[in-house]
């Protein structure tokens, strides 16, 4: 594999960098990105920022032209992710729509659903949230209990709750999983539900890393029309196992960690700490983890660009990202703790708080290890 960028890809990155430099506010990290992409200031700013991206065809250039894209390669998609995430993800949860909700609708949706949902993503007009995890099941989606009941006149009545739902308090629409009947994987069905649907209530969950990131979402007799169902009844598990390969590495957290690591090294040099061989060794170890995560992610993107089916390489890349996040965050908290407080260094704080949840977001680290053991190493259950 050749991981060098061609002229078109370098020009695309330069276009993104120029836009970011022009549009991100002064003191961006402290005033907007401090609490991550789910923070209220950043989500409010994302509305205007995403329109700027869309005006330059920078939201979903990797999509087919029929749905607002330019038929660009998967490599251009990862370039967008690298530049956005390393700047605190100013798109906020638009990235969910661009990375995996949109492709899921393309693959499993009706033509009417494609026309209804894909254009608003391409135009940067909609922010998404993901209704997967539940209080009694966590990320074990097969044990979810939120139920959708088919109504006599058509449509579905939904009851249940979701937890740890990022972006829910300000998102426009939820990509929701609910069970129609049966246990385990059977009956799991996907719905696209507007967040202003009567019966949908969002309650923030203040957490140690942020007061804005997590929410619990309650569905009490919330009625979803029949055309809100994505795919067939009971097809949700197949849809989810397809899109999770997009979700797991959709956020280029390795690039965020790399640029944060470079920032940390500059601060350590300025304080005279980088001459300590122990400090230098820890920085080198963190750098190795970051670049390992990058290359493992590029393996997955290379397969996607060549239209290969998803593989267990996705889980390996995702777990490597978690390790890289933690290694860089540990450097900041060990040697620069005074900069992690309010009024300190916004970039360090934002990365550190993101790293706290990196082993949970987009699938818990333990889930990734289970998938690696079974689908990558071929080990039996319980080994």
TrEMBL record:
InterPro entries: Acyl-CoA_Oxase/DH_mid-dom (IPR006091), Acyl-CoA_Oxase/DH_mid-dom_sf (IPR046373), AcylCo_DH-like_C (IPR036250), AcylCo_DH/oxidase_C (IPR009075), AcylCoA_DH/ox_N (IPR013786), AcylCoA_DH/ox_N_sf (IPR037069), AcylCoA_DH/oxidase_NM_dom_sf (IPR009100), Mycobact_Acyl-CoA_DH (IPR052161). Belongs to the acyl-CoA dehydrogenase family. Its cofactor is FAD. This is Acyl-CoA dehydrogenase. Residues 47-124 form the Acyl-CoA dehydrogenase/oxidase N-terminal domain. Pfam families: Acyl-CoA_dh_1, Acyl-CoA_dh_M, Acyl-CoA_dh_N. Keywords: FAD, Flavoprotein, Oxidoreductase. GO terms for cellular component: plasma membrane. Transmembrane segments: none annotated. Residues 234-375 form the Acyl-CoA dehydrogenase/oxidase C-terminal domain. One of its GO terms (molecular function) is oxidoreductase activity, acting on the CH-CH group of donors. Gene3D superfamilies: Acyl-CoA dehydrogenase/oxidase, N-terminal domain, Butyryl-CoA Dehydrogenase, subunit A, domain 2, Butyryl-CoA Dehydrogenase, subunit A, domain 3. Residues 129-221 form the Acyl-CoA oxidase/dehydrogenase middle domain.
